[in-house]
Write a structure and sequence with these properties.
7-stranded antiparallel β-sheet, Jelly Rolls, 2 domains, mainly beta
Length: 323
């Protein structure tokens, strides 16, 4: 049976966000943001979070938009977390107190943060800013928050339970048989890893520094490629990754005015995220066109091709199930 590929299309304007996706969602500096689950459920603690494309891909794709000086509190993951900046300027900071280091990222920048470290982020632009987050594996696990986040959140009525469900004590009581998740003890914090700013910079590729990383696929000189994670094979050429992380998925950027990929077939999950321009994607005999902030997930085993069709230079992220 032919799949209607429009069911694989996640246009930004059709996404339904959660306004209180996590336990710290009522705290100042965290309350004016939206969380989107585009591919897979991600790590949202909101049981009502809308998931646009639920099929397991081997990775999850989510997104965050936040007002100026808003973002996420300090938290840790057990699976990969890679940030793709689509607009604005974002400050990333880390450590159990948030003071071990920081990096500032702008549109087109990519950062892969290690697992088992506390990190937070904040939109430091004057206006709303947007970024995409790619998480490793079908089940990316749960978030571990610093003790301060859990304690401060409880003062606003937000509580995580021992099954990791989130409730608002202003609206309901803790259900019978469940109890509030206890904050980590100070001794527990020693098990988390620590990094300097220079160490984290090794996992960052900035758009302003892209000429260091861009390669030509030697196909009519029309395609410029930055390959961030996992090997990429394109037009009979192999591209090595520039970020030394094993995330469980591949990530690349295709850019150029006439950029394109000829027809190919893949048994792996693959998603296309438009940063700039307009892209026509063909799967078997069907076509879709995506613009900035749109996402398209190609059905496994489909024969697909991609081309940039706007009059400007376009940029398209490719997220692939690991080789």
């Amino acid at each position: 049976m032919t799949i209607d590929i429009n069911t694989r299309l996640a246009r930004f304007e059709d996404l339904i966000p959660s306004k209180v996706p996590f336990v710290e969602g009522k705290l100042k500096g965290h309350q004016d943001r939206s969380n989107y689950s585009i591919v897979g459920p991600g790590v949202s603690e909101d049981s009502k979070q809308n998931v646009k494309i639920a099929e397991a891909h081997g990775f999850n794709i989510g997104a965050v938009s936040a007002a100026s000086m808003n973002g996420s509190g300090l938290h840790s993951h057990t699976t990969a977390e890679v940030f793709l900046i689509f607009s604005g300027s974002w400050r990333f900071y880390w450590g159990s107190d948030g003071k071990e280091g920081e990096v500032i990222l702008h549109k087109g920048d990519v950062a892969s943060f290690p697992t088992n470290m506390f990190r937070g982020f904040q939109n430091i632009s004057d206006d709303e800013a947007y970024m995409v987050v790619v998480l490793g594996e079908n089940d990316p696990g749960v978030i571990t928050w610093t003790p301060k986040v859990i304690k401060d959140a409880k003062d606003t009525g937000m509580v995580l339970l021992n099954d990791n469900s989130l409730i608002d004590l202003d609206k309901q009581k803790i259900p019978e048989g469940k109890k509030a998740l206890e904050p980590l003890h100070e001794n527990d914090l020693h098990q988390f890893d620590h990094y300097t700013s220079d160490e984290i910079e090794k996992f960052v590729i900035r758009s302003s520094d892209s000429q260091r990383y861009i390669e030509d696929d030697e196909h009519f000189n029309s395609n410029s490629i930055i390959n961030y994670l996992d090997e990429l094979s394109l037009h009979e050429k192999t591209f090595k990754p520039h970020i030394p992380h094993h995330t469980g998925f591949g990530l690349s950027l295709l850019t150029g005015k006439d950029a394109h990929i000829h027809s190919y077939q893949s048994k792996k999950s693959e998603a296309f995220l438009c940063l700039d321009g307009k892209w026509e994607i063909t799967c078997d005999d069907q076509k879709v066109i995506i613009g900035p902030r749109d996402t398209f997930s190609a059905p496994k085993n489909s024969i697909r091709s991609v081309k940039q069709i706007s009059d400007e230079v376009g940029s398209l992220f490719l997220v692939r199930q690991k080789n």
